[in-house]
Amino acid sequence: MLLCGGDVLTERQLHRLNEHKYRSAGNTLLDPVMQKFWNWFTKRLPLWLAPNLMTLVGLCVNALTTVVLILYSPDGKQPIPGWALIFFAIGLFIYQTLDATDGKQARRTGTSSPLGELFDHGCDSISTVLASIATCLTFQLGYYPGWMFYQCIAASFLFYLAHWQTYVSATLKFGRFDVTEVQFSIMFFNILTACTSQDFWASTVPGLNMELKILPAIAIAIAHAIVAFNNFSVILAGGVGKNGSTVAGTSVLSPCIPIAIVIVPAFIIYQKSSPHLFEEHPCLYLITFGLIIAKVTNRLVVAHMTKSEMDYLDTVLIGPAMLFLNQYFNNFLPEYFVLWLALIYTLADLIHYAVVICRQISSYLHINVLTIAPNSPSWNAQKSDKHNKGSLNGRDKKYNLRQGRHQ
């Protein structure tokens, strides 16, 4: 929790973070197929390219392509040109590729660190918000505000839930149909819609008396329920800590409070708004609360990596508090204006948190965030290791020559 300055982590938390080891389990349907492409792509990356920079560039591309969709359809009801839908699909593929290869690049350059894992999860939490909103715009779910609210909030909640079970079990577990498959599904729907039109999803399903766009929404809701059930099964089975607690020795149910403090007000404000704030400005509303959930999720990731208790309250909650109090005082200020204030504050708070924690961790680990230092311990360790092994294949020779130029 920060208002103006100060460190996020204590010395003890930094020590635990340094000892943290990433653990994952499970393999998705498409990952084995995509690994060949990702490995091919990684080998063609320059050795000076920092893994965190790759992830950040991918997120910026993802954000840019999403903003284009929002500009065309801020209320989720307006038509979007086919090129913009394809543009988003390409942007999501770029993000997926860079996100999947940043870890490979880190191992290739000898710059793997806990900061890289945290940076990766942080960008993923924001990308989840962007992708879910973009999908709703593709289907024009603005005509069904309840469905749009559910789809976006549920997507962010499931990302939080995945790290909740990691906080309990110490292992990030992947299902057969997971992130990679979801991303390709979104790309497919965008390309299909671009090749047909958004009117295709507005056609009525014979015998069901509903628009075609509701069927994917129902299918996604069922998938959400299955994923949630699997994660809660892991959580309720008990954790790796003492007496079945979390990695921090806290109750396995404790992470439900921080997320509930965000989602419950989001729903209440949506329902109680007399000028129908969400219905009129769904994208602005979902970005605001999506970023709030992203901040809370990042704090959960930090709690897991540092094996520490997660605080229930956070400064980012000032954003929804603005909206809640404004409604309590009968909209003393226009809700649209307060929503913009909440978004600006939330974005500033999230960026401030990210910058402070990245600086603190990079300083403690003596590494750079977005660049690879020529004289960094990881760089020198890799150089020494390659020299001792005497394994100078073509790529290694080029790598060592490049080191010489830097030094």
TrEMBL record:
Keywords: Lipid biosynthesis, Lipid metabolism, Membrane, Phospholipid biosynthesis, Phospholipid metabolism, Transferase, Transmembrane, Transmembrane helix
Annotated compartments: Membrane
Pathway stated in the Swiss-Prot or TrEMBL entry: Phospholipid metabolism; phosphatidylcholine biosynthesis; phosphatidylcholine from phosphocholine: step 2/2
InterPro entries named among the record's database cross-references: CDP-OH_P_trans, CDP-OH_PTrfase_TM_dom, CDP_ALCOHOL_P_TRANSF_CS, CHOPT
Single GO biological process annotation from the record: phosphatidylethanolamine biosynthetic process
Similarity-based family: Belongs to the CDP-alcohol phosphatidyltransferase class-I family.
Protein name: diacylglycerol cholinephosphotransferase
Species for this entry: Tetranychus urticae
